[in-house]
Structure formats: structure tokens, C-alpha cells
Design a protein that fits this description.
Layout (H helix, E strand, L loop, with lengths): L2 H4 L11 H139 L1
């Protein structure tokens, strides 16, 4: 305990001696000076801690800003890659669509040609049947004519 702890915190009553008043105010002064030193010491400690916290926060902020900047570049890079991939995919899709259209047109052309060839083939087969039928009729008539000729020769003999 300090001597100031024994003294009252209120001013001395009237009629105190000069010595008592001087001792009282000296004790008050010493107590306040001790409190001031304690306050200054704790303030320095607190200030040092706060400065460390501020420095750590600033360092963390710088790191986060660097990370944000790096991620921003990465985002831009991915956007560029996405646009390029999309452009390439669109170009490939357009090429494939043109190829499909060309193949469909070619297929239609071949189907029409095939139909025309089948119609022509049917016509040729019909003509061949007609020709075969006509040939058979002619052969039949020829054979009948030969038989008549032979019969007429027989009659003439």
C-alpha cells in the first residue's frame, strides 16, 4: 500500500496544519503521478499491440489485394479462353452444319438419280419382257408357218 491509500480522497477539513495539507497534496500528487505512469505504460503497451495489429492487418490487406489482382488476371484469362473456345466451337458447328447440308443435298441428288435409274430399269425390264413375248409370238408364228409350209409341201407331193 502506498501512503496515499491511507489519506482521504476529499480535501482536508478546515483547521488542518500547513504540514498536513502539504503532506496531503504531496500524497495526492504522488498517487496521480503513479497512476499517470501506470496509464502511460499500459498506453505504450496497448499502442504497441495496436501497431502490431495494424501492421498485420495492412500486411494481410496487401496479401489479399495481391490475391484479388492475381485472381482478376486469372478471371480475365479464363474469359479469354472461354471466348476462344466458344468461337472455335461455333466455327466447328458452322462447318459441320455446312457439311451436313452438303451431304443432305448430295443424298437427295443420289436418291433422285437412283429413282430415275430404277424407273429406267423398270422400263428396260418391261421392254425386255415385251421383246421376249414378241419373240416368243414370232417364234410360235414362225413354227406354225414352217409347219404349214411342210404340210403344203406334203400336200403338193
Amino acid at each position: 500500500m502506498t501512503p496515499a491509500d491511507n489519506l482521504p480522497s476529499s480535501p482536508l477539513p478546515r483547521g488542518s496544519t500547513l504540514q498536513e495539507e502539504l503532506a496531503y497534496y504531496k500524497a495526492q500528487y504522488e498517487q496521480l503521478e503513479a497512476e499517470l505512469q501506470d496509464f502511460q505504460a499500459s498506453s505504450r503497451e496497448l499502442e504497441a499491440e495496436l501497431e502490431k495489429d495494424v501492421e498485420a492487418s495492412e500486411k494481410r490487406e496487401r496479401q489479399l489485394k495481391e490475391k484479388v489482382e492475381g485472381l482478376g488476371f486469372e478471371v480475365d484469362e479464363w474469359k479469354t479462353k472461354y471466348k476462344q473456345a466458344k468461337s472455335e466451337a461455333n466455327a466447328a458447328q458452322n462447318t459441320l452444319q455446312k457439311e451436313i447440308t452438303t451431304l443432305r443435298d448430295t443424298n437427295r441428288t443420289f436418291q433422285l438419280r437412283l429413282r430415275d435409274i430404277e424407273v429406267a430399269n423398270d422400263d428396260f425390264e418391261r421392254q425386255a419382257r415385251n421383246t421376249t413375248s414378241s419373240l416368243e409370238d414370232l417364234e410360235s408364228k414362225y413354227n406354225v408357218s414352217i409347219e404349214r409350209g411342210v404340210m403344203l409341201e406334203e400336200e403338193i407331193k
